[in-house]
Amino acid sequence: MKTLPSGALGAFLYLEWNEREQRAELRIAPDVAPTAALDRVPVQPLHLEGSTVTDAARRTVLSVQAGLDTALGTETLPDISPGSAVDDAAKVIATKNAFWVAAADWLASDRPRTFDAAFLAGAEPVADWPPAKVQGTGRAPVLWLAGPAS
User: Fold this and answer.
1) Geometric angle at alpha carbon 11, from 16 and 4, rounded to 5°
2) What is the pLDDT of residues 101-140, one digit of tens each?
3) Helices (H), the chain
4) Which residues are within 8 A (CB) of 10 and not within 5 positions of it... i.e. 6 or more apart?
5) What is the DSSP string of 76-87?
6) Rounded CA gap, 123 and 39, in Å?
7) Interatomic CA distance for residues 76 and 91, integer angstroms
């Protein structure tokens, strides 16, 4: 089986609302090892700010520091100059997640063909994408898979 960046076999990519900061972020959860529960899958949040993946990663690093300051009752004025610890951390995060950001961009376009995983497994009647209405009870949660449009 071919692996993706960072040794991942696949990934969950989803948007999450950050209640504390009142903004959306992309959540990247690569499937790198067997796990007993979904809540144990490591998740990398990435702010949806700036014009590049590095801008988003820099904002994410600053947000983590602000969260630590809030929890510890401290106030840090981070150095954001080129070559600083914040800049270096942002570049590492951006490099590590550039593939997943590109994948999310592709998934949000009209290029992929979407498949209902339950239908592909023969377990359920096909569901339409995008869903026309909120799913009713009695059906397992829908897992959508994406593939090439052709």
Assistant:
1) 145
2) 888 888 777 777 777 777 666 776 666 665 565 555 555 5
3) 53-72, 85-107, 117-120
4) 4, 30, 31
5) -----STTSHHH
6) 25
7) 21
Pair 104, 88: CB distance under 8 Å: no
Contact 119, 126 (CB under 8 A): yes
For residue 64, how far is the Cα from the chain centroid? 16
Q: Which amino acid is at 85?
A: A
Report the largest interatomic distance among the alpha carbons of the chain, rounded to a whole angstrom. Answer: 55
Tokens 């929890």, residue located: 71
Residue 45, preceding peptide bond in cis (omega within 30° of 0): no
Retrieve residue 82's tokens. 């080129």
64-86 pLDDT, tens digit per residue, is 888 888 888 999 888 888 999 99
Q: Which secondary structure element, helix H or strand E, spans residue 118, and what is its range?
A: helix 117-120
Contact 90, 57 (CB under 8 A): yes
Could you identify the residue written with the tokens 């076999």?
Answer: 9
Contact predicate 47/60, CB 8 Å:
yes
Give the distance from CA 85 to its chain's centroid. Answer: 23
